[in-house]
Amino acid sequence: MADPTGATWQPSDCSRCTVPDILRANASPYLQLHLKIQAGILGIGRRLNVTATCDRHEIPIADPFVGCPKCNAEHPGLEAFLNALEQQPPPDAGGIR
Prior knowledge:
By secondary structure, this protein is of the alpha+beta class. The chain has one domain (11-87). Helices cover 25% and strands 22% of the residues.
């Protein structure tokens, strides 16, 4: 959902938008994303601010890539998976370049 108080969307905004990445990482049907585009000083530069809320629990979401902490707590296997991802070092390429 775009913020009506923000600047108007321009096609160049798509290349820097994180919404597609968030939706690939989090498929929650309760995730509600809000986009506000802010024009820079004197019209130079633009900033895209994405915030998220959970429609089910009606709370703001700190990290939309991870999702709602209350929804995640309802699925303990998911929490264990997310913790393992945070603790696992990146895979070694084995010298392949």
